[in-house]
Amino acid sequence: CFNSGSSCEKCDFETDLCKALPELNLQPGWIRRNGRSGMGPPYSDHSGNDSAYFLSLSSEMRSSSATLRTNVFLPTDEEHICQITFHYWVSQTSGTLMVGLQKHSEDTITNIWQDSGELQNQWKANSITINSTEKYEV
């Protein structure tokens, strides 16, 4: 759920990638699938639904990295906070999941969260609150 103030956009990948993740930014390596795809675990989404869709790294990408980039978010302030809540799964063969913040005046991406999967092969949830005085992408 991408939450900016009172408006909350839920992104479940059931029909597409949702507004926050433009189709064009789905880099090679990411696939939209569900637990019935025959591609191995996870065999369901975080709620246990085996027909619900999620994004997954293809097996060919095990040795390299792949990025998902959001649309541009507007600056945050006391009235417009940004909280991103997401569910994720880290398997034994994958590396580290990182969330980065790129402000529009900066060329570099600042790492604001990461998990290398100490508790592997199970769904976990995380929320990140972002503060930025300028437009940014995640």
TrEMBL record:
Domain MAM: 9-138
Matching InterPro entries: ConA-like_dom_sf, MAM_dom, MAM_domain-containing
PROSITE patterns per UniProt: MAM_2 (PS50060)
Cellular component, GO, one term: membrane
UniProt superkingdom: Eukaryota
Name assigned to this protein: MALR1 protein
Gene, per the UniProt record: Malrd1_3
